[in-house]
Amino acid sequence: MNIWDDEDFRARFRISKDVVIQVLGFINDQIFSRSDRNHALTSIEKLLLALIFYATGNFLITAGDFMGVSKTTASLIVRDVSTAIAKLRPIFVKMPIESEIPTMQKRFYKIAKFPRTIGAIDCTHVKIQNPGGPNAEYYRNRKGYFSLNVQTVSSPDLKIMDVVARWPGSCHDYTILKKSRFFNRLNSGEWGNSLIVADSGYANSQRIVTPFINPRNDIEELYNESIIRTRNPVERSYGVLKRRFPILSFGSRLKLQTTQAVIVACCVLHNIAIDNKDTDPPALLDIVLPDNENINIIEHHIDEGNARQQLIDEYFSYL
Asked: How much is the pLDDT for 64?
């Protein structure tokens, strides 16, 4: 790593040297080559190869050439390193515990005075190659390309507090939520009376609130302005995540299971970077990212509770 200065290193690998050293400390035992047969790469070389792959947008040959290994070997290294980083998820991708809830609510409140919020939820699509098999068409989304529809919950500082990266592109956002462990935790009351802010693709409930599609008065307009600004961090997090790791913009041609590991690994690295005050990805070198499409659609749901109306009656009516 010493052949690059700090700025050049971040431009090439998308994260700082300090973050790389920290990650290596966690995963070294899992990716370490037990022998130097055939001049096996060191752990740091494997990690840097994976980072180059995330940074260049799915060019295994380029990543392999970087370390002088074949495309096949590069693919195996990316799989192993991504899996090892993804296993750090419980440490770095997590919702607030009970003692942290008041602080999280205050941080969200500072955005636009929206009360009781501990997270902003949404989904983003990551392109994949045709997975083949009888279920392949389930992965074709409404824009016509194959993808995984990835659900995340974001904090005010753009950290990812929960991620679900296993659903085909044809699945609707709210369906993914209802099938997730996060949904069960939320409905069990794990976070008390806290709220999750979402867009109109979700149903209102006792713990999930969305904007009014057709606000009828000034109070509902005020509510909409507040919730839209409060849920903005989840949208911004996708922009930062995909600028930092262009593989998530250009799409993956890896096996489906490896792609899922890459997505979670990128979320872990994203959070560690933010923890290290590395919040703004460096400019991309000669890479133009495709637009971050929002292909969600608004579906009509039956409201499953009255948290939104309660906020209108007991809070926004008095602002």
From this structure: 65
Helix axis angle, 232-244 to 256-275, nearest 10°? 110
Tell which residue, 176, 129, 143, 159, has the closest CA to residue 241.
Answer: 159
CA nearest neighbour of 85 among 277, 278, 262: 262
Q: What is the pLDDT of residue 12?
A: 87
DSSP 8-state secondary structure symbol assigned to residue 140: B
3-state secondary structure of 160: strand
Residue reference for tokens 């109070």: 219
* DSSP string of 111-138, one letter each residue: HH--TTEEEEEEEEEEEB----STTGGG
Rounded Cα–Cα distance for residues 125 and 167 (Å): 10
> What span, in angstroms and rounded, lies between the C-alpha atoms of 273 and 257?
24
HSE-up (13 A, CA, CB side) for residue 306: 5
Which residues of the chain are under the pLDDT cut of 70? 35-39, 58-65, 285-305
Six token digits for residue 279: 């919040």
Give the Cα separation of 167 and 256 in Å (integer).
11
**What does DSSP say about strands 117-127 and 195-197: parallel, antiparallel, or unpaired?**
parallel
| Helix orientation angle between 218-230 and 307-314, rounded to the nearest 10 degrees | 120
Pair of tokens at residue 245: 């790791």
Sign of CA dihedral 273, 56, 240, 293: negative
